[in-house]
């Protein structure tokens, strides 16, 4: 049986758009991939009006049945979407992890030294670059030398991708944290069509080099996440040297180490 391939077009350094209605329905119904900007804002408004009880492993089957019966099927809304946007980590997961994404890259003139760049390396350059599209792609090894920001953006993407795979592999539905602004991901037990997210995830570097997230910044995330009835997970990722993965830098996540910490909100007025 031939595997279905999702068609997408890269529109910026970290976003791709899917326009085929059948592909949109498939992505939304099987994994809740992608986002619609207006829909994300609507989700936040609903959460502010009514906070559902947090998802926990101790929920009774009766509570789960009630939520499932009252939920709106995801296909009823996604059929109305004309465009579905995929984030950079979703692009990597569908392209490298599942092998079901055919992504169209922007046309650009390549130099003779870069003519041997494969599509995966071109895609990696665009995802880690702040250059406006289309721009001539270069090999990641060359970009690390000539573009000061490239190394920082590359390692940031690897951390978020490692965290994304970590939670996906544990059965969570991982969604972009656009509705809450600062967090990287929202974790759903079943998906946004059935219940609200239980946790917000902030991804940080594990290296003690003075560039980790400050306590003040972390406190802001905790307050925002708690205000909409969620809990915050601080996910610190340690990466190997990307230089060892010259032709496949995305494989560096195989040696990544993930350490997660649940950061709770404490109200001194409550006992």
From TrEMBL:
Alphabetical list of CDD domains matching this protein: tRNA-intron_lyase_C
Catalysed transformations (reactions): pretRNA = a 3'-half-tRNA molecule with a 5'-OH end + a 5'-half-tRNA molecule with a 2',3'-cyclic phosphate end + an intron with a 2',3'-cyclic phosphate and a 5'-hydroxyl terminus
GO MF term set: nucleic acid binding; tRNA-intron lyase activity
Entry EC number(s): 4.6.1.16
Matching SUPFAM superfamilies: tRNA-intron endonuclease catalytic domain-like (SSF53032)
Domain tRNA intron endonuclease catalytic: residue ranges: 158-245
One CC-aspect GO term: cytoplasm
Keyword Nucleotide-binding: no
GO biological process: tRNA-type intron splice site recognition and cleavage
Keyword terms: Endonuclease, Hydrolase, Nuclease
Enzyme class: lyase
Similarity section: Belongs to the tRNA-intron endonuclease family.
Protein name: tRNA-intron lyase
Originating species: Clonorchis sinensis (Chinese liver fluke)
